[in-house]
User: Fold these one by one.
Assistant:
Number 1:
Amino acid sequence: MTARYRARLLAPFLHAGFRALAIVGVSAAASAAMQRPTPSTETLASEPAVRSALDFIRVNEPEVLNEQARLCEIAAPPFAERLRAGAYRAAFERLGLQNVRIDAVGNVIGDRPGRAAGPRVVMSAHLDTVFPEGTNVKTTRSGSTIAGPGISDDCRGLAVVLGVIRALNEARIETAGSVTFVGTVGEEGLGDLRGVKHLVGAELQGRIDRFVSIDGAGLSITHIGVGSRRYRVAFKGPGGHSFGDFGIANPVHALGRAIARIAALEVPHDPKTTFNVGRVGGGTSVNSIAAEAWMEIDMRSSDKASLTDVDRRVMEALDRALAEENARWGNKGRLTLEKKLVGDRPPGSTPASAAIVRTALDVSRSLGLNSALEEGSTDANFPMSLGIQAITIDGGGSGAGSHSLSERFDSTESWKGTARALLLTVALAR
């Protein structure tokens, strides 16, 4: 979930009055339907077929955990999710989804038709991990804990999606609207949400009424999308010998000037706005003036104006660092600066008063779960930014060490996460 940042919101926000939500790319009928109160989830959970599905989920959770570990042991490094996508497609086919396919960018998609075409609900999880090719992805178990890179983020979400499909099938639940299940690519790192951007903007453009991403462990609900902009920046010059060519502009020194300026920036605390120089590199040896020095910069905020402002000031800091380094040496060995935008994840939000958020909270309460509303950076950002009702939910259990080789998932009562996802799927497809 790409360095997901979370912050608990004040309780009064949960009780804010219902506000109109602009629906972009959604049918007028679906938009009107979304403004109506959802059916009581308590009543829904007591329906025989739904009750049967929930009972099945509790019994079937060990198989969900097995699937979680199995998928986790299929490597899915950034931009190379093909093997895991193939396994996920095969799972969709075994479970009887229709029109199962891998789209142009690598998303795995399968449909479960309802009595009518709409509303169309998308339930998704992401296939990719942050771990590079060659990482040992073998999982280990100790008691209720499964350990392995990506076991929570997002092998848990992938397994919950499959658990929901299996429970719907076992209980022979026919939803009113259709449900499309998806395994997306490119959610992590420099993937720049390429999977969900293609899904929402091309593959299913204008045909998504409600979007749910299942991502990671826990029981929270993310309804505010933290946007980010990421740059790879390079200072370039002729380079030379550290002694013989001393007196020419130095890309590494310019990089240092830029980092110092960026580090001194003041940013808002509310809305929380951040910046980070995450990676640096360049040079050939200790006794060489580098021909190139580069860095990667990440900026984040849930507020579009604040994100735009910090972006502008970081760009100004880079330009000033370039000018200072060139001026320092009288433009000898003059440097150039390249700025490449490598990530543009839009901020967005679904109001706490929106039907999808109220339904998710109702579902949690009906199962005796305490779910906090949070903000984060997930696949839901993109549909949120288009005005589509979208949220991200956790997949149950608890996790630790996300994005590390020691990542762990504790499956204690993790079936509750699968049960919530099932009940939410049925409720939203009504």
Number 2:
Amino acid sequence: MRNWWQAKDGERVILLPGRLTRWKGQLVFVRALARMKREGRLPPGVRAVIAGAMQGRNSYVNEIIRTIGENGLKELVVVSDHLTDMPAAYLAADIVVSASTDPEAFGRIPPEAAAMGRPVIATDHGGALETVRSGETGLLVTPGSATALAEALRDLLARSPAELAAMGAKGRGHIQANFTVERMCADTLEIYRALIERPRKS
């Protein structure tokens, strides 16, 4: 997977997976990286990967590629096709980003990445408020803000591999404790039970 992304030995991979559609925040991600580069705060040895299905959105994909080129990021950012092996993709990454500009009811990327032991940067709305514990399992940032995302990326990239691994381990523990199928079923049945047992108004 890392070879496919052209990641060299020792490079840290930042992965933003998701459908290539505007509200998933790919352009916010590119602009955050561009800001870091302009300010001289983008460390060497980083590979950024945008991966997802185009689903016919050729004009938007071309806009992403054009923005990458305009900001001198061609050597840093790879736009990859739809991923068929997400567990391998998460394991091949060091940091996973979910930059959705609109809130998602649950959003699979943050909990999936955390379940694979990866620290997550996600936007501060929707399901990520429950699946990401900011400062513990990852970081939450202002939706649509390239500045906030750049700061979060700078923060995690400044941490040691051991620190990132510890954050990822906390994330995995959080998901295992709260977001398994068994937990979901038990909580749902508990709600049904409470409603059934609640006294009816005469």
Number 3:
Amino acid sequence: MGIVSRVAPAAELDAQALELAQQLASGPSVMLGMTKILVNSAFRSPAEFLQLESFCQVSAFCSDEFKEGVAAFLAKRPAVFHR
């Protein structure tokens, strides 16, 4: 599926996994949750998947996380997502 983004030596695995977990934890949690749902739904029928994907798109575009992401991008600053 092309999900692997890097390979780590065994001695560095824990440190790299923690670094990635911290990056994900500071991101937009609702959007990451939707992404997980869509990845897990990838093998549904195309019609079912597209319906779910369109629901997620509309939900995402109406979210505070989306607004913050766009504002941060336009202001050329890191986004700050509130939990």
